[in-house]
Amino acid sequence: xxxxxxxxxxxxxxxxxxxxxxxxxxxxxxxxxxxxxxxxxxxxxxxxxxxxxxxxxxxxxxxxxxxxxxxxxxxxxxxxxxxxxxxxxxxxxxxxxxxxxxxxxxxxxxxxxxxxxxxxxxxxxxxxxxxxxxxxxxxxxxxxxxxxxxxxxxxxxxxxxxxxxxxxxxxxxxxxxxxxxxxxxxxxxxxxxxxxxxxxxxxxxxxxxxxxxxxxxxxxxxxxxxxxxxxxxxxxxxxxxxxxxxxxxxxxxxxxxxxxxxxxxxxxxxxxxxxxxxxxxxxxxxxxxxxxxxxxxxxxxxxxxxxxxxxxxxxxxxxxxxxxxxxxxxxxxxxxxxxxxxxxxxxxxxxxxxxxxxxxxxxxxxxxxxxxxxxxxxxxxxxxxxxxxxxxxxxxxxxxxxxxxxxxxxxxxxxxxxxxxxxxxxxx
Length: 428
Ligand SMILES: C[S@@+](CC[C@H](N)C(=O)[O-])C[C@H]1O[C@@H](n2cnc3c(N)ncnc32)[C@H](O)[C@@H]1O
Hints:
- The relative contact order is 0.08.
- The chain folds into 3 domains: 2-170, SPOUT methyltransferase, trefoil knot domain (Alpha/beta knot, 3-Layer(aba) Sandwich); 198-257, Orthogonal Bundle (Trp Operon Repressor, Chain A), CATH 1.10.1270; 268-424, Hotdog Thioesterase (Thiol Ester Dehydrase, Chain A, Roll).
- 33% of the residues lie in helices and 22% in strands.
- By secondary structure, it is of the alpha/beta class.
- It is built from 16 helices and 16 strands.
- α5 packs across α7 and α10 (205-223) crosses α12.
- It binds S-adenosylmethionine.
């Protein structure tokens, strides 16, 4: 690929073009560069390439004739068909923002012309009648187009086959893959008191791949949630993201739980629904303390009773074939023990309904001890995914369930079940 760079300051390119990956690629004939000093096409002996603005205004404007003629000279050696395939890029803060897709598309062209503006900018006729593309490298204004031209060349060059060692590297890069890249580690495995995550040393490639994927999703959710909205993600990723759903994207990492999950800090007033359950003998150890596993049962009770409160039985719904879900992730934080015969208060809310999964949040309170009136025993979050038991594949959450839950969470009112005939089949 050949880059034709048109600039008033050709020396500015010396360092970047003579070093780095671009120079290596040039030595291997993968890239070539032609620098043109726009002043060489000035029409006077002084090499004047800029002039005052018509209509008045601060700053000089780059004249059209030298720019047009410099571009025409650069393209003179190409056939008309070749010329038609060569983008003429005007660097400008008013242009389309440079992104990986644009760079990838430009890399497929045989050559690229880059016009570096300066001063107050370039005569509008260059923009309208010469440039085929106007590209900005970001929402800020630089003094000239030289740095933008270097940025464009560098990012385009990465997509030219052979320039970067392995094509896989480029595809795994942040943004190119649609997500931010997972964390990278190299030797030593232990640096000061900072160790590389064990999983990366495990040799279990499938688990490493999943860990990387989840780190990548978590990082993207935290730093660039806008990218997630555009990414076409498989179900497994959506379920994982759903499990992170309530994590504030802006919270510092140190405030988050391990693996991005932290139990929600909720109080009773955050919930519109609660029910009760008494701790039974078969749920306790010999000291009369409820096993941790019993809390999974309390979660299930709260889950079933929540929807019963909305008018239907989740078990009858599964039997009817309309919708069945399975718990795919749970995160419970245990704060204090529950004891035999305690009357527990189970607070539950639907925190999020995704396409094929939903997230429940739970807080379990025990009876007051002494002066304490508010004894939180456990709090956490669980993700349930809709699935089809026959094919064991994911299944969307019915719109009726979404509507009922969202309306209840917003208003505290249960919508009439008659509006949802398939749910009404599982009415109580
Ligand atoms: C000071 S700027 C001119 C800005 C111009 N007055 C405007 O408001 O659009 C001079 C030159 O720097 C380059 N430039 C500045 N910021 C840029 C950016 N964010 N992306 C690409 N080129 C930029 C362009 O070539 C531009 O012609």
